[in-house]
Each structure stands twice: as structure tokens, then as C-alpha cells.
Amino acid sequence: MHGLVRVVEWPVRVSLRESKIGVLDALCEWQVMRGIAYVTALANAVAPVDLIHDLSPCPRPQATREGAHGELVDRLRNTAQGAPVDVLNEILRTCARLLAGAPYSVFAVAAGLATDSGPELCEGIERSAALSVQWSATPEVQASLSAAASVNGFIGAWVEWTEREALDRDGPKGVGIGSHPAHALPAAEDLPEWLRPFLAAVLDTHADSM
After folding, report:
1. Are 134 and 141 in contact (CB under 8 A)?
2. How many Cα atoms sit within 13 Å of 43 on the Cβ side?
3. N vs C: which end of the chain shows fewer Cβ within 10 Å?
4. Is 106 exposed, middle or buried (0-12, 13-18, 19+ CB in 10 A)?
5. Regarding predicted confidence, which is higher, 206 or 81?
6. Cβ contacts of residue 114 below 8 Å, gap of 6+?
7. pLDDT digit string, tens, across residues 159-175
8. What's the predicted TM-score (pTM) here?
9. How many CB atoms within 10 Å of residue 150?
10. Whose CA is closest to 152, among 164, 141, 163, 144?
11. How far apart are CA 150 and CA 128, in angstroms?
């Protein structure tokens, strides 16, 4: 399921209308909660049937416009709130690294999100181009897109790491996730409001350990 859970129906047209920007932000929120909930299930080695049901719907613009996704995202958020702090720490630091790399991060973010969505080549190019232009034209969605790209990348790294561990049981353990130099955590004001509680959870844990 790890391939399907990274798929999002990203828009193929750029829009500067506030309502359309809100749809893009809502897609990112849905995907981030979906991704963290999925990784939480992997970490706990438990995937209840109702969670699998909630993970399965592909985030689509029409659903966000109609508000049909609200209760679903709330359930995913409840599961995501149980994510290991180390997981949240890594996702947030990668998000901050992508934000710090602007404007050049757009190439990794847009191309990665479009590729993860697995459309036909032509549609993938259109999605990547639209996300690239949206990143540049509306900086207010950069943090949301960075968070979605960070979550998708973490899922890919997790699955690759576990597959490698299964094949090489005698090799070094715990290598592959979080092995790059850690970036600083983002500031709360640099994140969308829906992601800030997860940053607070990481900061609270760090404060308790000091």
C-alpha cells in the first residue's frame, strides 16, 4: 500500500484565486495527515481495518471543495497524533530543510510529488509544472507543499530501509533513515496552522529530556 498512500490528485492548472490556493493547502493537509497516520501504523505494526479504509481514498480537489473530506482528515489526524516523536522530528526537519532551500527546493518538491502520484508522463509533467509555478507565485503554500513532500519522502525511505533490512539481516542496523545531518526544526510561524501541534509535541519532548 506504500505506493498508493503517496498518491494525490494534484492540480494541473495554476490558480491565484484564494479559494483555489485554499484547496491546494487542504490537499497538503490531507496528505500529511494520511502519511503520518500510515507511518504510525507501520511503527506500531498495527493497521486496523478502519484505518486502512481511511488511508485508501486518494486526496482530490473536488472532495476538498465540497468539504467531504473533513471527518476523514480528523480521523487521520487522531491517528497521526500517536506518531513516534522521532518520526515527527525527522519529517519536520526535512520540511524545514526544503523551506530553507527555496527557491531551488521547488524542483525536488514538485517533481517528487508529481512522480509519487504516478500519473501518465504527460499528466505528471503538467502536475509538476503547475506545482512549480504555484510554489513561486504563492509563497504561502510553500510550507504545506514542503510538508507533503517530506512525508512522502519519509514513507519511501522507511519502506526502502525495511526492505533492505529484510534482505540483509547481517548488515548494519538502523542506517538509512535520518542518517543525513539534521536540519534545525522549523519555527512555528513558518508552518501551516494544522502542522504546528506536531511541532509542539516534538518541542515538548525535547524540553522534557533536558
Report:
1. yes
2. 18
3. C
4. buried
5. 81
6. 10, 124, 125, 127, 128, 131
7. 887 777 667 655 555 54
8. 0.90
9. 24
10. 144
11. 16
